[in-house]
Structure formats: structure tokens, C-alpha cells
Amino acid sequence: MAQLLIWSPGCREWLNCQLDEVTWLDRQLLSGGKDATLHRPPRCAGFRYVSHGWELFSHDTTYQVYVSPAGEAPLNYESVQAEARHVLPAALARYEHHMVSIESVVRLEAGIWRVSVGKWPLQVYVDVPVPRRQDPTATGNGELATQEERTRLPGSAAGRGRGNLPVPDAVADVRAYLERKGEARMAMAYYYQNFIKGAVAAQAIPMIEVAIALDLTGDGAVSDYKKELQRLIWREQGHARELAEFLLANGLITKADLDLAEKVAAANEASGKAEAARDRLRYRQKK
Q1: Is there a contact between 249 and 196 (Cβ–Cβ < 8 Å)?
Q2: Could you write out the three-class secondary structure of the chain?
Q3: Domain at 4-160: CATH code
Q4: Tens-of-pLDDT digits for all 287 residues of the chain?
Q5: N or C end of the chain, less CB within 10 A?
Q6: Cα–Cα distance for residue pair 69/7, rounded to 1 Å
Q7: Which of 258, 232, 250, 239 is nearest to 180 (CA)?
């Protein structure tokens, strides 16, 4: 199944974690942006899919991260800390130019887990069905959804129609788009560089790194490119893993595109554009 779903009481909504992206447990996800003591990416905890499994890691320099199995107690940080099976310590060094001390990592087995950072808890479903209730932590019988019901869950992988095939002329439409948008082609090649290089259990690199390296307006630019490509190929979003496979299998991003992107990134680093982008994007994140 390779699925990880998060219920955030702070945001009151489901989040379906993508296989090729880090899902950051940041200020917005945990508290809806209310708690200024929580960090923003990449100085926080996060989930990632590595070697056919989900890992929780932490770069948080302020808070320990507690992980406990789901139980009968109400979902709050006190119960998570009291029943913690894993505790990820606060990081010893802060991020500076994407360098960090050895991170704390725990690999989660399939099941229902609770995670707390500061006073903010989450409930996490790893490769298991999710509750019928919109709020899975509400009191009640706690029945779990059937597979058929799960396919209709908003935000779930199946609910987004991942079985849909690419539309006719998708390859031609994407090729035309990338020929018109050279920046998008470079950005996607740089974003999926580990796939192009044939890395084992390849994952996309963080969007913020792409934005800094190529001097984009922000990581939202990469997200916008992905959304447009998904629209051209499937007429819908929710095909994060398939997107890399589609682009590579059809020769829409190549080693030549990555070589060009890396040359631009090196030039930006040498000229100081990358440093200016770091400062600019760091400032925007703190606003």
C-alpha cells in the first residue's frame, strides 16, 4: 500500500503524504500557523518514504518529537509523551546552507501512531485503513473504513483516481509545454535528479533546494510546474510518483536537461545568486 495519512487537529483536515516528497511537520501543519515557537522547513520534523517504508526524522532544534502507538486516551501531547515508544531528541545544530548535524530517525511499522511536537499532536495511519469519521479522534465506536470506503476518502491516494491512464496526446502536450517553458524543464530535471541518475529508492529533492539552485521565485514555482504537468497528463492531480516515471519513460526530461540545470546551479552559486536566493526565501518563510 505504501500509504501514510495524517490527521491534524490543528488544521482539522487529512493530509495524504506523497511518496516522492518530504511531508514536513511544520508550524502550519501542526498548529494552523498559530504557534510561532514551531519551526518551518527544513528546521522541523518530517516524514519521508525510503526503501519501501516510512521514516520520521527530525531537524527540530527546539522540541523533542514523541511517537506512541494509538491508544484509548484522548489525542493530546500529554498522552503521547506518557506512552511514547520513541523519542527523537532536539537537533544539536541549526540548518545553515542546508547543512545539519546527524539527524534523528525512526522507521514506522504499519499501524496507527501518534506524534507530538511541543504541545501539538498528530494521528498517523501507516498502510492501514482510516476511520469512517471525518475526525478520527472523535469519541465513538472507532470503526475503520472498508477498502471501498477508503477509495472515496478525500485526499487518499485511491480517492484521487490514481488508476486513471494518461489522456491521449499527453506526451505531445507535455513536450510542447516543456519546450515553451525551458525553466520548467530544468526545474523538473533538477527536482527529479535522483531518478535521472538511477539512484536506489530515488526520491525528489526538496522543492526549496530547486528554487535556490535555479534562482526561482520560490518552491511554489516547482509545485506549479508539477500541477500543470499533472493536468496535461491526467487532467487531475495526485499522481506524484507516476509523474517522475512518465517524464523519464517518455524522454521528456533527460540527463542533458539535468546537466544544463546543474551548470545553471553552479553558475548561480559562483555569482552569488544562490546565496541571495537563500536569503530571500528564508526571509519570506519567516514573514
Answers
A1: no
A2: CCCEEEEECCCCEEEECCCCCCEEECHHHHHCCCCCCCCCCCCCEEEEEECCEEEEEECCCCCCEEEEECCCCCCCHHHHHHCCCEEECCCCCCCECCECCCCEEEEECCEEEEEEECCEEEEEEECCCCECCCCCCCCCCCCECCHHHHCCCCCCCHHHCCCCCCCCCHHHHHHHHHHHCHHHHHHHHHHCHHHHCCCCCCCCCCHHHHHHHCCCCCHHHHHHHHHHHHHHHHCCCCCHHHHHHHHHHCCCCCHHHHHHHHHHHHHHHHHCHHHHHHHHHHHHHHC
A3: 2.60.200.20
A4: 578 889 877 667 778 888 888 899 998 889 888 899 999 888 899 999 887 889 999 989 899 999 999 887 888 999 999 999 999 998 875 444 344 444 578 999 989 999 999 999 999 999 876 655 455 555 433 333 333 333 333 333 333 334 468 888 899 999 999 999 999 999 999 999 988 888 766 788 999 999 999 999 887 899 999 999 999 999 887 777 789 888 988 889 999 999 999 999 999 999 999 999 888 887 555 44
A5: C
A6: 15
A7: 232
Three cell numbers written together for 169 = 496526446
Hey, what amino acid is at 217? T
